[in-house]
Amino acid sequence: MFKNIGKDLVKAFNTGVSYFIPVVVIGGVFLAFSLATGQAGDAGMEITNPVMKNLNAIGMAGIHMMIPVLAAYIAYSIGGKPALAPGFVLGYLANNPVEINETNVSTGFLGAMLLGVAAGYFIKWMKTWKVGNTVRTIMPVLIMPTLSALALGMVYIYVLAYPISLFMGWMTQILSSLEGGSAVVLGAVIGLMTAVDMGGPINKTASTFTMVLMAEHIYMPNGAFRVAVAVPPLVCGIASLIARSKYEEADRQLGITAIFMGLIGITEGAIPFAVKDLKHTLPAIMSGSAVGAALAAFQGVECFVPHGGMIVVLATSSPLLFTIDMAIGVAVGVVLLVVMKPKLEK
Question: Which of the two ends of the chain, N or C, has the fewest CB atoms closer than 10 A to its terminal CB?
Answer without folding.
Answer: C
